[in-house]
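Justification of resources, computational component.

The compute hours requested in this renewal are based largely on the per-chain cost of generating structure records like the one below. Each record pairs the submitted sequence with a full structure-token output. That output is archived, and it is also reused by downstream analysis tasks.
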Amino acid sequence: MRLATEEFSCSNPRPTFDVLQWVSGQGTNATGGAVAPGGGSSVTSLDFSNTTVAGCVANPVAADNNSSPFVDYDNDVAYVRANNGVLYRIKNVFNGTPTLDYCITVNAGRALTSPVYDSVTKKVFVSDGRSVFGYTPGAASFTAAGSVTVAGTAGSIILAPIIDVSSALVYVFSTHDLTNTNEIVSQMPESLKTHVDAPIGPASGGSVLDGDFDNNYYQNGPATGSLYALRDTNRV
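The structure output for this chain reads:
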């Protein structure tokens, strides 16, 4: 069995994409104690931001924080990002040796959110903190698939977009709207041609974390459901 993670540490100034493979039968069950890989287990690490491939040049000092990989299990690929504003696609995640496939600069020098892949529309969505971008991964490169700006201040969107594949809608939580007046939840179609904002409080220097939908939303869609948001009210 293999587990894929994205890692950044103080000892390594760059993020790595790690795949942990442990030997069958190792560890203990949940009742008896924590499961921990033992002898024979291995970790494969890919220094993806320091590799030159189609669409990008190696960046030896690209840091990474607040980020998780998104694995497309059907195609054995993963989508990751770094604080250099670049979106990466990694192939052969579990069935082979993880290898950087290609990448694209979304917004140079900006810390991107974690990417999210929609297997229905075949698009990857990511934000640079102000705008939401869509990309279609192809055989050898990404193709731009729209963008929309929802915040007036850089770094307002911290966490990954939420995709409602059944309604073809994208949601992001932001500490600022376009006028820097309110904290918002912004809803947009996957075409990213428009957006509708719901104010949830005054704009500030805090953070708005991802919320979740209630059961009515999952059962009946946006018309009858609700979306909950979490605001950081501990301001400095």
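The chain is about 5% helix and 45% strand. The longest helix spans residues 215-220.
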